[in-house]
Write a structure and sequence with these properties.
Structural class: alpha/beta
CATH architecture of the largest domain: Alpha-Beta Complex
Helix content: 40-55%
CATH class of the largest domain: Alpha Beta
Number of helices: 12
Oligomer: single chain
Radius of gyration: 20 Å
Strand content: 15-25%
Shape: globular
Order of helices and strands: HEEHEEHHEEHEEHHEHEHHHH
Distance between the termini: 20 Å
CATH topology of the largest domain: 2-enoyl-CoA Hydratase, Chain A, domain 1
CATH superfamily of the largest domain: 2-enoyl-CoA Hydratase, Chain A, domain 1
């Protein structure tokens, strides 16, 4: 896949490929939410295309790391664009209500939950380059990423209760695992803005940098990741993500299985050979 062309200056509705940009070069897939005029919020088509891009990057052997960012200077992603175009739905029989039991749950499972799961299940490390506000579902995208670099002017907002709804997109699963249940309740109950500085203190952000240094910080980090043994990173991510659901015996068994699988990788073999030959390994990603 190549980078989608940026939206032109005409009044035509931009295509979904103008709104979800994808560029893969030098081992890094850069995915940009390109809708700054709407706070980089995602309508249904954008949300699903973003999921597809992440799944593509996961399978592409040319990709060693993924960067997720938002266009502009103010917003990373402000969640769902409820006013945007929606995906077509089956025709309803005469007399059927507008919504029936189970439809909202199905929409959440097939929509934002699938998007968040694509990040958690991506076989490459996913970095959130948070340039501005990450609110609602956008906050959960940040929480799902493996590494988070925030501009010092950025903020995270679990805004849901202000709208009278519960945190969705996996937020109540993700946030307590990062900050603990008490802080998670505070952030979700009060729905206050959480500054980049506090995100760093709470462990949500790995690094907080001046806004004009965000790009350089992301480049430095991805430069290290693309030189790493990609399959070892994938299995390490898998073990860590499963650790909260595993007992000790299961975790130890899965560790042994993962290590056994890894011994058949080219990078494992070169890593062992390089150690014996006292040279730097040349990891290729498989």
């Amino acid at each position: 896949m190549t980078e989608a062309k940026s939206a032109d200056s005409s009044h035509e509705t931009p295509s979904v490929d103008d709104q979800i940009l994808y560029e893969s070069t030098g081992g890094v897939a850069r995915i940009t939410i390109n809708a700054p005029q709407q706070g980089n919020s995602l309508n249904a088509a954008m949300r699903d295309r973003l999921t597809e891009r992440i799944e593509w990057a996961s399978a592409d052997l040319n990709v060693r790391a993924v960067v997720l960012s938002g266009a502009g200077e103010r917003h990373f992603c402000t969640g769902a664009n409820l006013g945007g175009p929606q995906l077509p739905a089956p025709e309803r029989p005469e007399g059927a209500p507008r919504m029936t039991v189970g439809e909202t749950g199905r929409m959440i499972k097939r929509g934002w939950q699938r998007l968040v799961a694509s990040i958690l299940d991506c076989e490459k490390p996913v970095i959130a380059a948070v340039n501005g506000t990450a609110a609602g579902g956008g906050a959960q995208l940040v929480l799902a990423c493996d590494l988070v670099i925030m501009a010092d002017s950025a903020k995270l907002v679990e805004v849901f209760v202000k709208r009278g709804i519960i945190p969705d997109a996996g937020g109540a699963y993700l946030l307590p695992r990062i900050v603990g249940p008490q802080i998670a309740k505070e952030l979700m109950f009060l729905a206050d803005d959480v500054s980049a500085q506090r995100c760093g203190e709470l462990g949500i952000a790995n690094r907080v940098v001046p806004a004009d240094e965000l790009g350089d910080a992301v480049t430095e980090l991805t430069g290290r990741l693309v030189e790493a043994p990609t399959k070892a990173l994938a299995l390490t991510k898998w073990l860590i993500n499963r650790s909260f659901e595993s007992d000790r015996n299961t975790a130890f068994d899965e560790e042994a299985i993962a290590q056994d699988l890894l011994t058949n990788s080219a990078d494992f073999k070169d890593g062992i050979a390089a150690f014996g030959e006292r040279r730097a390994p040349e990891f290729r990603g498989w």
